[in-house]
Amino acid sequence: MNRRVQILVALVLTTLWGAGIYLAHANGHLRFLDRLEATLTDLRTLARGVQRPPDLVTIVAIDDTVVKRGGSYPLPRADLARVVDTIVRFKPKVVAIDLLLVDRSAAIGDATLAHTLATGPMVLAAAAIFPSASQTVAPGSDGPLAVLPQAERFLLPLPAFADHADVGVVNVATGQSGSPLSVPMLFRTRDKVELSFPLRVASRALDKPLTIAPDHLMLGDRAVPTDTDFALPITYYGPRRTIRTVSAQSIFDGTLDRAAIENRIVVIGAAVAGGGDFFPTPFDSLMPGVEVVSTAITHLVAGDSIMRDRRVRIADALAAILLPMLLVGLLAWGRSALGLIAAAAVMIAWAGLNLFAFTHGVWLNAATTLAAMVPPVAIFAGVQLWMGGRRTQYFAAKSRSLAQFQAPAVQEWLAQDPEFLAKPVRQNAAVIFIDLSGFTALSERIDPDALQDILKAFHVLIDKASVDCGGMITSFLGDGAMILFGLPSAMPDDAARALKCSIELHRSVERWMASLPPAIGGQLGFKIGAHFGPIIASRLGESHQHITANGDTVNLANRLMEVAAQNGARLALTDTLLDAADFHGAPDGVLSGPLRTQVRGRSGVVTVWFWRDQNRPSQAAAQAEMID
Known about the structure:
Blueprint: H1 3-26, H2 32-48, E1 57-62, H3 64-70, H4 77-89, E2 94-100, H5 107-117, E3 122-129, E4 153-155, H6 159-162, E5 166-169, E6 173-174, E7 180-184, E8 186-188, E9 193-195, H7 197-206, E10 210-212, E11 217-219, E12 222-224, E13 231-233, E14 245-247, H8 249-253, E15 265-270, E16 278-279, E17 287-288, H9 289-302, H10 310-332, H11 337-359, H12 367-403, H13 408-416, E18 425-437, H14 439-443, H15 448-469, E19 472-476, E20 480-485, H16 494-515, H17 518-521, E21 525-540, E22 546-550, H18 552-566, E23 571-574, H19 575-581, E24 589-599, E25 602-613, H20 618-624
Parallel strand pairs: 1-14, 1-15, 2-3, 2-15, 3-5, 21-23
Antiparallel strand pairs: 3-4, 6-7, 7-13, 8-9, 10-11, 11-12, 16-17, 18-20, 18-21, 19-20, 21-22, 23-25, 24-25
Helix pairs in contact: 1-10, 1-12, 4-5, 7-9, 10-11, 10-12, 15-16, 16-19
């Protein structure tokens, strides 16, 4: 399977994964994502920070101070009537009582409260009773209202109270973390639909008719963006008491400020420790339920609720499908660090966009996108790393294989510039030829395996000397070799390194032959020729190319081996090489000459010098040489 097909398969699987995650969560599965989303929502809320709420609502809290004064909780109906009466006198827009008045108490207290409720615009709280703690949505066949939370029954205020007020259901929907993330606007039982408490209050305060559209609500001519189940997403302005709050005790003390009530929405609710509903929020571990409800009322009246409607859900679906595809595509882009950096930049940009949208009133789901994005990206990145490791091993093996045929410098140069020597190059270089004498005759008398071992050992000596001195073996010629100094580029010390290599070859081959059995070593000899001058370096071959050099310098270096053998020497050097190497002799070697001679196949005279070890007489070499 080629790489393009692999990437295409990865993108298709990523798309299917993202779509599957989104659809599964949208249909009520993968509930663990709700807990993750609740946590991420809390973090985004904290990152946004505390905001000043629209100053529309005043909470009159029945708090610990009131309970200490009266000595009991719930507040006696007569005392509640006094609280309501005082508030009505200050002419609020509407009075919302977030207390369940479902049980009878002292007749006189109930009568007093009922009379007081008739004196102003009132909304009373009711409660929905659900069959289980989790308020699930069971779709039915009765249109848009099928998605509403279905209660077994409603706990309604006593008729004596309800006859003088509107009634709304006060339940809120908590997320997996226990923090209320939305407030259902509509509730249903088998035979009726009830409005939520905040919706009743907002409708009464705005004095606007309520219209239920298929996917949203209308307060007058203003749309209320709700979630798909007609729930109002809420975000908290800050910690408790961020919304204006006064204690009901100020009413009993006669210190209530009229400005806190007049022409405002007033919500009466419990804030008694241990005596009312409390919920964890991003800013508080315990926030009174009356403040949660008041937050929803403020959103409805001010129109500043966070948007999580059908359009946002479509954006979530696109993000769950397209973002993982983009990241996988970037990781596949050239399999390079640039693709990884681009993928990281996209993830950071997405996180920033998600936070920006949240702080500007659009709630994009982060958990679903992460669930759609992280697994395929992690798997693809892991596969890429695994395949990259295999590719690294493969190319390392190739590199080691290439190193067996090319000098390390040339190997590195070819990796950097694949077009190296694609066209012939003329330059100066030093050339060494070395050849075994007597090898052909020896090969007729000994076992082929033994012969192969001898040849292999000889090649190892040549390879070590050339590598140590920075030369390149352009070819092994059976029982000989050609070594080139000057590639991948000409260097000032090419001649000096070639001279050093020639001397090292002379010594190492002599030691090696001395270590062979006399029956073998006594039959072998060697000769070396080295010269410096212009060459033409190029590649030869089509499908199987090799790097070589030719020209007069190469031919002369080859012929110098004959000159050495003819003069009882093993190493012949031209004066051109010695001059280029700036050679002035060595304490452990003897340089004899010069010999001015002609070379076979070449006109003109060449000046040749012969080198030997100081402790070996020159005639010993002549006696050992045998011409193939």
